[in-house]
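Entry type: protein chain
Record version: 2
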Amino acid sequence: MADSIAGAVIDYLEFARSGGMLERNVRLDELPRLADLLASTEGFLSVRLEGSRDDKGKSWLQVDIAGEPVLHCQRCLGGVEFPLAISSRLQLIAPGEEWPDDDLADDSADAIEAEKALAVLSLVEEEVLLALPIAPRHEQCNLPSGNATENGPSPFAALAALKKQRNKE
């Protein structure tokens, strides 16, 4: 289970037709677009892909991703652990096949185009990026202080003093 899927490229339609299953760990540093949003790229995500076909002949891909990446808190700028438990059901649409409108109206599944060679890491990264909050933050945290910093008093304190002096004149 500790194997990486860094170079895994599969034919999703064939994967679904054969009832394929892929279960691996993905290191966070293998996902470059996600890594840009993380406070730390240490750790991994558990990934499970399972293909299937229903009685109507439609191909499906079940994507389950779990982990706890550390994001940047938008309040204090520290690290905040974000528990992920993604479970996505994707209808695979063959190239040239008509996209379903009615079947996906209830938002229980999404549709993706199934090409012959799709990179597993790209799919995993897309699903994680879609699940992340826009502005991650701790439930309780201290805001950075605006009065004094590690480098001394705020540069705006000098401006405030000048403004007071000017108002007195």
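Comment: The chain has four helices and twelve strands.
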